[in-house]
Every structure is written in C-alpha cells, then in structure tokens.
Amino acid sequence: MTAQTFAVSVSYFQYLLHTQDADLTESPYAGGNGLIWVDPAGEAAIIMTGTDTGPVTLTIDVTDQPPDADLDTWDDVVEASVTLTGDGIVIYAPADMEGGHEVELPASAEETRTYRLRAHARGRDQGRAQQFTDIASSPPEEHLILLWPADEADEQRLKLTDAVGAEIRARTQ
C-alpha cells in the first residue's frame, strides 16, 4: 500500500477510525494514554487532537511489516491493537459521520484481522492554542497512523511529551 496524506476534519478534539460495521454507541471514552483510545471490542480507535474543530494533516500508511519507530520528530507516539473486519476503514470527525476518508486494507470484505496501530502526533499544543482551524489555513497539527497485520498485544506508550496529552492523561486517572 502507498501512504496517503490528506486533511482530516476533527471535532470535539478527536477523529475516529474504524470499519463500516463498528458499533460505537456503547463505547465511552476512557483513553488513559492521551493520544489514542481503542474501544473495548477493539474495533475502533479514537485519536485525540489539540485542535477542537477543523482540519488536521493526517498521513496513513498500511504496511505488511512493522515499520521502524521514528520518535525524533513526533511529540507523542502510542501503539495499540485493533481488530478490523473488511477491506477498508473510514476516518472522520464525530460531528461529520457522513463525510470522511476511506482507506483500503489488505483483506477481503468478510475477513477479520488484528492490526497494530501506531499513532504519531505533533503540533497538538499549537492546535489547542488555535482551537479552531480554518480549512483554507495550514493546520498546525500533524498526525501519522501506521497500520500493519500483527497479533494482539498490549498498548505501548513510546513517547509522551506534549501538554495536550498530559492534560488528557491527568483527567483520566
């Protein structure tokens, strides 16, 4: 697969990533790492942003092998497992459930696979200071999502340095 970069809309300081059939109605947020929360069924992820409403630059790359960890240029990096059914995921803002971006997965439409999801963020503190980002402006916040097939494993907090993540972690403890 080839990496895709686009502006993803965020609302309520977050965006969602899941397959079409995931049910998030019974999934209260309880994200203790400050960046990513995976629902109890493991079928969806909520990525926390510093930006309240507007675009965030997102690059997503689906690979077949675990990539090397690049921690130097990112503020926060967290890894978790997700279980996804089908050949694609959708990424969208909670306030815009009809919109969003679709990303292909290397699976058949009926296949369920476990993936490792490594979320990277930088500029969340600047996004929080700006709060609302205009579509025409260059978003101060950037994210990178890496996905690859892997056995389920515990969450790994690889790097936690921004103030937004520290604030979220303080609220959830």
List keywords for this structure.
173 residues, Substrate Binding Domain Of DNAk, Chain A, domain 1, 6-stranded mixed β-sheet, 5-stranded antiparallel β-sheet, 2 helices, 11 strands, 9% helix, 42% strand, globular
Q: Unreliable runs, pLDDT <50, ≥5 residues? A: none
SS field, number of helical segments: 2
Gyration radius over CA: 15 Å
Report the order of strands and helices. EEEEEEEEEHEEH
Structure summary, number of beta strands: 11
Could you describe the 3D structure shown?
With 173 residues, the protein is mainly beta. It has one domain (4-171): Substrate Binding Domain Of DNAk, Chain A, domain 1 (Sandwich), CATH 2.60.34.30. Helix content is 9%, strand content 42%. It is built from two helices and eleven strands, in the order βββββββββαββα. The chain has helices at 124-130, 163-171, and strands spanning 4-10, 14-18, 36-38, 44-48, 54-62, 76-85, 88-92, 101-104, 112-122, 142-149, 156-160. A six-stranded mixed beta sheet has the order 1-5-10-9-6-11, with no helix packed on it. Strand 3 and strand 4 (44-48) form a beta hairpin. The radius of gyration is 15 Å and the shape is globular. It starts with a strand and ends with a helix. The relative contact order is 0.28. The model has no long low-confidence stretch (mean pLDDT 85).
